[in-house]
Amino acid sequence: MPKGKLDPASIPDDGLTTRQRRMLPITAVHTGPGKGKSTAAFGMAMRAWNQGMNVGVFQFVKSAKWKVGEEAVFKRLGQLHEDTGEGGAVEWHKMGEGWSWAKKAGSEEDHARDAADGWAEIKRRLAAETHEFYVLDEFTYPIKWGWIDIDDVAEVLRTRPGTQHVVMTGRDAHPKLIEVADLVTEMTKIKHPMDVGRKGQKGIEW
After folding, report:
1. What residues does 58 pair with on adjacent strands?
2. What is the pLDDT of residue 60?
């Protein structure tokens, strides 16, 4: 990549060295109606793993029965780390595995409680600096539905300790989530095979 692509447009007068700025935590949001929000987040997580970071993935909508390709890969990478020390540790959590949730049998109150419990667990991990890189996949939806308090999310992200990176995905990101983020990308759909009736395909959607 050309050097200019990695250089900032301007140097802030913040008293920090270049090395110190490179250690600052990043809050990222991938939103918009286009495909690729989670895929991009998992790509970033793979880079983090390669740098030896402890990675935590938390899926807020995916069913426990939905086996995405990234999950299988990251679990293998986690095992590789355990066996050889290469890369970083990996944890992957989703509906049906403890505290996470999805739209399933039960009342809206049940879903809201489970979503709040999931966020509370992430808050505990951020406070304890459990992971160095977090993917909160499809996290925008429980915020949109009012199941997780956006003001609490924004405050926790803004004040979290250490250098923990957090990447969140999902459509319709709340304006306060965008405001607290350092990096926001909107995926805009131009064309999609499903527009003409094609179904999801292995290797493309999962």
Report:
1. 93, 136
2. 85
